[in-house]
Design goal:
Blueprint: H1 2-5, H2 8-16, E1 26-30, E2 33-38, H3 40-47, H4 50-58, H5 73-80, H6 83-91, H7 106-113, H8 116-124, H9 139-146, H10 149-157, H11 171-178, H12 181-189, H13 196-212, H14 217-233, H15 259-265, H16 269-284, H17 289-304, H18 308-325, H19 331-350, H20 366-381, H21 397-402, H22 410-417, H23 432-438, H24 455-465, H25 476-483
Antiparallel strand pairs: 1-2
Helix pairs in contact: 3-4, 3-5, 4-6, 5-6, 5-7, 7-8, 7-9, 8-10, 9-10, 9-11, 11-12, 11-13, 13-14, 13-16, 14-15, 16-17, 17-18, 18-19, 18-20, 20-22
Length: 489
């Protein structure tokens, strides 16, 4: 803590008189983030305390000691631009090629944070300008994403390559996604650096960024016109790929293919917003996080405007994309489910109220609810959740669905589709059908019991009904299955 907070006298006393462990690690907070396993030298370097860093080094502190995430004191100094400490550490033989657990090097972080002096110094020492992180990005990507134009030019002068990362993104596309027009324009103007297609994609993607991120329709239109001109008036004609299908969530828009249609766009901002989503998905693909992010962003825009149907349609499309491309229960997918929960909760809470802002909130569509419910069941199933799991009274989700005043067929049908058992009994010996009957609702109005019942279930019910001994007589794995089909009185 003395090194973190710059208390030189305290640190000196602890080292020289109390023989404190100069490598003792601990947890410290920087910019609201807790850093685990940080050694004293890392703390001093990150906080910019030059005298303390010098003191620690003079007493033998290891210059390349790391945090739990493999961040070195040198990387910490590069992060916040402490140039004098960077030089001090390198003078003590700090290794500037040690990357953190993400494969991110000292040069990369200096580029991302825009510390030109540090980047120039590291390059002059021979830092690898083409080193790749775990996700495949390079220092050029970091410059493009942060808008560090001067450093980007420096790297190109030292033979930095325009590589692609794990998402297939070049530094040029990275600049387009983040909206750094000056980087895009510089890269596409350099001779023999990028292809005609790369120029077109970058300009079209930059236009989409101007629509959604910068909210600059005129700027977006100008970049799309530049892209159109490059397509048809460049060295060779490069027509847009033929769009075989349209997306309902995007209002079935088709990408504009000629300059006249572009001019008409300004009179229809909604069409322009959909064009941006279509263009982004085509160029980045569904796997890139920005694709689904901006679909969700546009959905939220419509919700704020009271167009809840458009919001649900876009969010559902984004959720499909995430479930198709991401691992189960990815944080982005969880965020989408949470957004649906908030939206439906708000709509149900506002239903029937007198409009406060000149618009009435429509009732939640049960079809929308069941669609999202189906996706949620699918998601938790993929991580091992049991659709037949029971509560403290032995009720499954199917039992619970029957307790509603009027059980809609869609809910139990969704559960059955995912493997729910129609004839499981709870601790009171009641099945889904029994609970329905108590409410005066016949089973056949919900599902066809014949097509929804397996032969193994029928056999289990016979065993339980006639009290046939089965414990130890059948495979252990089947005993609980049979047990769930009857009740011990």
């Amino acid at each position: 803590m003395a090194c973190r907070n710059g208390h030189y006298d305290v640190a000196e006393y602890l080292i020289e008189h109390c023989h404190a462990d100069i490598e003792q690690r601990g947890s410290v907070v920087f910019d609201g983030e807790t850093i685990e396993g940080a050694p004293p030298l890392w703390c001093a370097a990150a906080a910019g305390h030059y005298p303390l860093a010098s003191l620690l080094l003079s007493h033998g502190a290891r210059v390349n000691s790391t945090t739990r995430t493999n961040s070195t004191p040198l990387r910490a100094a590069c992060y916040d631009g402490h140039f004098e400490i960077v030089k001090l550490l390198i003078d003590h033989r700090a290794d500037f090629e040690i990357a953190n657990r993400h494969g991110h090097t000292c040069l990369m972080i200096a580029c991302y944070k825009g510390h030109k002096q540090i980047a120039h110094y590291l390059v002059s020492l021979g830092a690898d300008v083409n080193r790749r992180s775990v996700k495949g990005n390079t220092a050029l990507h970091d410059c493009a994403e942060s808008g560090s134009w001067d450093i980007l030019k420096l790297l190109l002068q030292h033979n930095a390559k325009m590589d692609v990362d794990s998402y297939g993104m070049t530094p040029l596309l990275a600049a387009s996604v983040t909206g750094h027009a000056h980087i895009v324009e510089y890269l596409i103007m350099r001779e023999n650096l990028v292809s005609q297609k790369e120029k077109v994609d970058a300009l079209e993607l930059l236009g989409a960024t101007y629509v959604d991120k910068k909210r600059d329709m005129v700027g977006a239109l100008n970049y799309w016109k530049q892209a159109m001109n490059e397509r048809y008036n460049g060295k060779t004609e490069l027509p847009k790929p033929f769009q075989k299908t349209t997306v309902e969530a995007y209002d079935h828009v088709k990408e504009i293919r000629d300059p006249q249609q572009l001019d008409d766009l300004l009179s229809d901002p909604d069409e322009m917003r959909m064009q941006a989503l279509v263009i982004r998905e085509r160029i980045l693909g569904p796997a890139h996080p920005d694709t689904s992010y901006y679909v969700r962003y546009r959905g939220a825009f419509y919700a704020d405007a009271g167009q809840f149907g458009r919001c649900v349609s876009l969010w559902s499309y984004a959720l499909d994309m995430q479930q198709r491309m991401l691992e189960p229960l990815n944080p982005m997918t969880q965020s989408s489910f949470f957004s649906f929960t908030e939206l439906f909760s708000y709509m149900m809470g506002e239903e029937g109220r007198i409009p406060s802002r000149g618009r009435r909130v429509p009732p939640v569509s049960f079809n929308d609810l069941i669609t999202v419910f189906d996706k949620a069941v699918k998601e938790v199933e993929m991580v091992g959740a049991d659709v037949n799991a029971k509560d403290e009274e032995g009720n499954t989700a199917l039992h619970t669905s029957a307790t509603y005043h009027s059980c809609s067929p869609d809910l139990p049908r969704t559960l059955l589709k995912h493997g729910a058992h129609l004839d499981y009994v709870n601790d009171h010996g009641r099945t889904f059908e029994d609970i329905l009957a108590e409410r005066g609702q016949p089973l056949h109005t919900i599902v066809n019991p014949v097509s929804s019942t397996k032969l193994s279930c029928l056999a289990s019910r016979v065993i339980r009904k006639h009290k046939i001994e089965y414990i130890g007589k059948i495979p252990k794995a089947l005993e609980s299955f049979v047990k769930n089909h009857g009740h011990d009185l």
